[in-house]
Design brief:
elongated; 5 helices; five-stranded antiparallel β-sheet; alpha+beta; 5 strands; 27% helix; 178 residues; single chain
Length: 178
Amino acid sequence: MEVSEEQRKESASYTYWVREVTGDAAPLPVPRKLSSEDISGLSHPPNLGSVWNRELLMSVDSLEFSSGKAEISEVSNCVGDAFLVTVRNKKRVGYTYELSLKVKGEWCIGEEKMVVKGHLDIPEFSFGEVDDLQIGVRLTEEKDLQSKDKMLINQDLKMFLQPVRAKLLQFEQELKER
């Protein structure tokens, strides 16, 4: 019993895409401009970054120093991307962020208590590179601080590196589990 060439093609386990539009094919999509009502009706998924900003980083406790204390008052800037890719049925996650945290603290300088405000800047950090994290300190209200006092405050504020690193590692773990 011989199988003809045509029967062999019909019994193949795959098919080719239709190259020509026939009457029973779906119509081609027609672009249209969205109105403001269309845009407002779209549901926006919750942004992981904003939830993380409020809950995770704000849970960093205030730190006590030899001559004062400080706390993170808000996340002033968090910009970047996070992504999830599935390769061979395995999830791979990653991110790249830039972060700026507003800090407020009190230091005893001389015999006077001074309120000092500033920012902790983390220029760029990526998935798996949290151990290489570096923090920059910017004081916004320097008032009448001498350079040695500024250096002391900068060194004190850089002690936030360890608790922030711990929170970022926690963020990585939550990202992996999604």
